[in-house]
Specification:
Layout (H helix, E strand, L loop, with lengths): L1 H23 L1 H9 L1 H18 L1 H7 L4 H5 L4 H10 L4 E5 L2 H9 L1 H8 L6 H34 L6 H6 L1 H7 L14 E7 L6 E7 L2 H14 L15 H10 L19 E5 L14 E5 H11 L1
Parallel strand pairs: 1-2
Antiparallel strand pairs: 2-3, 4-5
The protein binds zinc ion.
Length: 303
């Protein structure tokens, strides 16, 4: 029995030593270098997705008008600030009847107690959030697929033992950053009641995921009288509209002509030709398909 145990142990230790030597060796370094450009591309997309996820905190923390225009920090600086408070939660302590009412009419109470105005500017901001969150959700899937594709392409050059038993470490050693697949970045609003003694409590949680954001937009859209609306042209951003624009543009970037028919895992985004912040609106004429890189470059220039 003891012999078996010692045998297994020495095999395990032996394997660990072998793996460490392998990852430290020139052979692996060559493989790593051969895909370095793709790894970097994945890491850039990963970072971009994290930026998209932080749109909401940016919307909530900057006042409309002046402070938006005054914010002239360099793109990189701003990026760091965005990711600092990405996971946004708001809690309102209130009576149990407010909790009940909020549960019955979530958006009405959300606007009232968390100061979400029903005006055109707010609608535009939330449209941007919905647009970016949708791209982030798609980006997460495409990025994972792309990473798997790269790893499987080099599979024949990796020792079988390593790919079977050290898959995760292989991904790390190749230089891929972790992909955050969670949906923790969706903003969460909570109405909660706790009795003075703490024995009784209730709460109503409103999570602004894609479905709820879309519903909130249509709720606000019904309340807002749009100034720039030329009859019938103004639409509200929806997940379906994004897909429609992509199909219209043949799933091809309007700037660089990259297409998801040739690059299977290419993240395509929907861009407002005249940005919402410059008075553009969501209408089919003002929307175009861009690949994430072109959209990111355009965004950096405007900021
Ligand atoms: Zn492009």
């Amino acid at each position: 029995m003891v012999e078996v145990f010692l045998g297994v142990l020495s095999v395990l230790i032996g394997y660990q030593i072998y793996v460490s030597f392998y990852f430290g060796g020139k052979k692996f370094l060559d493989v790593k270098n051969s895909v370095a450009i793709y790894t970097k591309n994945c890491n850039d997309l990963n970072e971009h997705i994290e930026e998209l996820k932080s749109t909401y905190s940016y919307v909530r923390s900057i006042n409309y008008g002046d402070s938006h225009l005054q914010d002239d920090s360099r793109y990189n600086m701003k990026r760091r600030k965005w990711s600092e408070n990405k996971n946004s939660t708001w809690v309102h302590n209130c009576s149990s009847s407010v909790v009940k009412n909020a549960n019955n009419q979530p958006f009405k109470y959300l606007c009232k107690y968390f100061d979400i105005k029903s005006d055109e500017e707010q609608v535009s901001k939330l449209e941007e959030v919905l647009n970016n969150f949708s791209a982030a959700e798609q980006g997460k899937v495409l990025l994972s697929n792309e990473r798997d594709r790269i790893v499987s392409d080099i599979n024949s050059e990796i020792p079988t033992l390593v790919s079977i038993f050290s898959g995760k470490r292989l991904i790390k050693e190749l230089g891929f950053r972790d992909i955050d697949l969670s949906d923790l970045y969706f903003p969460v609003y909570t109405f909660q009641y706790v009795s003075p003694g703490g024995n009784s409590s209730s709460k109503c949680v409103i999570k602004l995921d894609l479905r709820n954001l879309e519903a909130l937009l249509s709720y606000l859209g019904a309340l807002v009288k749009f100034r720039k609306s030329i009859a019938g042209q103004r639409a509200l951003m929806t997940v379906a509209l994004r897909e429609r624009i992509k199909a219209r543009d043949n799933f091809t970037c309007k700037l660089c002509s990259l297409s998801s028919s040739t690059e299977r895992n290419l993240l395509l985004e929907i861009d407002h030709i005249i940005p919402l912040s410059k008075g553009g609106v969501t209408s089919e004429e003002n929307l175009q398909t861009l690949c994430w890189k072109c959209n990111r470059t355009k965004g950096a220039k405007i900021l």
